[in-house]
Inverse folding.
């Protein structure tokens, strides 16, 4: 089975960040493979190792983001597609989804895998947008995948009160949770091998798009950033268990009045 | 008159509190902006919820009853909502952010050409669209976002607004719905058993982390939760090792909760966890490491061994409750 995994380069949420006059500044050197996408890559690798097939990855981003494609290749993906957009500033899930839709129209695959959400924005939209645009059956928030015969992908997805098992006929799309697996750390051998693996570059024009049409598909904009209102650090209690419990009971009953 | 359409989620024969929160907020927004408030509910027996929706001020109620809605499947939900959106032609479509709505929001946006603002902490209808605040970067900061266009779809984090009644009389329409042939087949629904209190709706949550090492520790959590009438939550660490079910996970990947009282027990307070609980009113943390980051946000932090503290605490609460 052929898997194509959509991978995004995102800022590391642990990198120091600063907000000045509503603008966010971050250390742009600290970019990582979106954790949810890493799980999607891992799962595709495991399934193709078991059942045969290929894993390719596709990323929209600037030249610098190629390092993230290399990371996925080092994990074991066979080929990378780099849709080159140098200035991605202001692009939202709808815009990325429109580019990826155009890409998949020209480069069909059997299973499209995406992350359930971008780790930096937690949007969680692009996957189901692509599926809807391509009229593909899909499942979101997958926590487990397996292949049933050659014609369907069985997805266990995490729902509100439990899990649902779905059989999706191929071709289909699935958005992956990081609760699915723990992505492998590329081995030295994998890293060496990744350097020889093909990365095909696509321009927006190759896909029948232009920066102007993509900008037109943007539906939302970020106006400014602000600090999260800080919680007041409350009372820290130390002592033996009896003391701790009696102080806490007193606070919950008489101060917070929640018990 | 332009409309706000609220998609109401139900669970176990009840409307989710988070849906009523969104409906209440949308009622205020509709009044402010001279818009009509409409609600749509999809359920095996959707008509049963019409009365309650009028209590919360919906002026138009669309009920779509079909056995297909007994369990969640994205295709029929999307099909039905597209049908209602076409009928109502709202400027704003709003819903509570749940796994069920997360599953369809992007598809609805793609199919309608609307703009989507997912998982917002608050929003306002503006002259040309919607303006909203969203937590980003693992909820370390807030981003102010706008969306314009003929239709804006928003999903709202639970606990962002109060659910308040404001009774009215609505036009109730039972909508005829014929599910299409869907490509995806639902094979099985695996409910997590033993969830006595629904986590996303609970007013008290007892959450366990890696400090809970074994079944004995799990029992301490269950006892405390039962005594409090609380829902049990968990960090990713103890979902991963199989001690707690995945439906209990709270945080960036899991659920967002905002109870009156939250117990973080043996949880260090990683940003990906706090992203899902920092809106809790009172936070009690129990951790043996006095430097654990959770103490920076705890209302009351107890530095000590949870295995010693929990049995005493449960006993004291039991006494207080029966007093
Ligand atoms: C993309 C992404 C998404 C994620 N999403 C989530 C999510 O949704 N939810 C989530 O929870 N995590 C999530 N995580 C994982 C998160 O980063 C942390 O790894 C996780 O929250 C840690 O769980 P913990 O606090 O239980 O464990 P630890 O960090 O190991 O903390 C255990 C704590 O227990 C204390 N302890 C141990 N023994 C005792 C004792 N006897 N008495 C008292 N205290 C004790 C220790 O001092 C320690 O502070 C995500 C990570 C990533 C990368
Ligand atoms: N620039 C991008 N390049 C490739 N895939 C992307 C890109 N942006 C988003 N995606 C995919 O879409 C998923 C959901 O993104 P989002 O809607 O931003 O939360 C991500 O996990 C990726 O799999």
């Amino acid at each position: 089975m052929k898997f194509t995994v959509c991978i995004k380069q995102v800022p590391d949420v642990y990198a120091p960040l600063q907000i000045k006059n509503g603008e966010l500044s971050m250390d742009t050197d600290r970019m990582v493979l979106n954790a949810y996408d890493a799980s999607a890559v891992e799962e595709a690798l495991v399934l193709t190792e078991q059942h045969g097939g290929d894993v390719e990855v596709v990323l929209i981003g600037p030249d610098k983001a190629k390092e993230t494609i290399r990371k996925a290749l080092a994990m074991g993906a066979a080929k990378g597609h780099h849709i080159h957009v140098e200035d991605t500033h202001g692009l939202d899930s709808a815009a990325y989804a429109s580019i990826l839709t155009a890409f998949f129209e020209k480069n069909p695959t059997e299973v499209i895998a995406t992350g359930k959400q971008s780790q930096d924005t937690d949007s969680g939209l692009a996957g189901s947008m692509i599926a809807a645009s391509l009229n593909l059956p899909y499942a979101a928030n997958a926590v487990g995948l397996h292949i049933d015969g050659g014609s369907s992908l069985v997805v266990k997805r995490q729902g509100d009160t439990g899990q649902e098992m779905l059989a999706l006929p191929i071709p289909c799309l699935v958005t992956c949770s990081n609760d699915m697996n723990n992505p492998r750390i590329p081995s030295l051998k994998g890293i060496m091998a990744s350097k020889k693996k093909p990365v095909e570059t696509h321009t927006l024009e190759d896909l029948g798009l232009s920066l102007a049409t993509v900008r037109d598909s943007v539906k939302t904009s970020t106006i400014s950033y602000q600090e999260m209102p800080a919680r007041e650090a409350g009372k820290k209690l130390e002592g033996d268990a009896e003391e701790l419990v009696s102080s806490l009971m007193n606070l919950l009953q008489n101060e917070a009045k929640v018990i | 008159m332009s409309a706000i359409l609220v998609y109401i989620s139900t669970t176990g024969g009840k409307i989710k509190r988070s849906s009523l929160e969104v409906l209440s907020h949308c009622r205020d927004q509709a009044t402010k902006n001279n818009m009509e408030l409409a609600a749509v509910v999809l359920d095996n027996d959707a008509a049963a919820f019409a009365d309650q929706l009028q209590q919360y001020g919906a002026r138009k109620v669309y009920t779509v009853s079909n056995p297909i809605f007994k369990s969640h499947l994205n295709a029929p939900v999307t099909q039905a909502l597209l049908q209602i959106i076409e009928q109502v032609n709202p400027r704003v479509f709003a819903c509570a952010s749940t796994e069920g709505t997360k599953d369809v929001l992007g598809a609805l946006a793609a199919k309608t050409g609307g703009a989507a603002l997912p998982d917002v902490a608050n929003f306002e209808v503006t002259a040309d669209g919607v303006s909203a605040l969203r937590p980003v970067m693992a909820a370390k900061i807030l981003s102010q976002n706008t969306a314009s266009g003929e239709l804006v779809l928003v999903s709202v984090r639970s606990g962002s607004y109060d659910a308040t009644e404001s009774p009215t009389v609505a036009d109730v329409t039972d909508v005829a719905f014929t599910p299409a042939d869907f490509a995806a087949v639902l094979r099985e629904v695996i409910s997590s058993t033993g969830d006595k209190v629904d986590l996303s709706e609970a007013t008290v949550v007892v959450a366990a982390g890696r400090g809970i090492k074994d079944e004995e520790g799990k029992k301490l959590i269950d006892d405390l939760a039962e005594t409090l009438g609380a829902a049990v939550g968990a960090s990713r660490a103890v979902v991963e090792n199989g001690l707690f079910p995945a439906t209990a996970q709270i945080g960036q990947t899991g659920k967002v909760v905002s109870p009156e009282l939250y117990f973080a027990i043996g949880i260090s307070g990683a940003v990906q966890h706090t992203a899902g609980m920092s809106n809790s009113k009172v936070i009690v943390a129990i951790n043996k490491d006095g430097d654990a980051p959770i103490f920076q946000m705890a209302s009351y932090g107890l530095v000590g061994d949870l295995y010693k503290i929990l049995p005493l605490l449960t006993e004291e609460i039991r006494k207080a409750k029966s007093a």
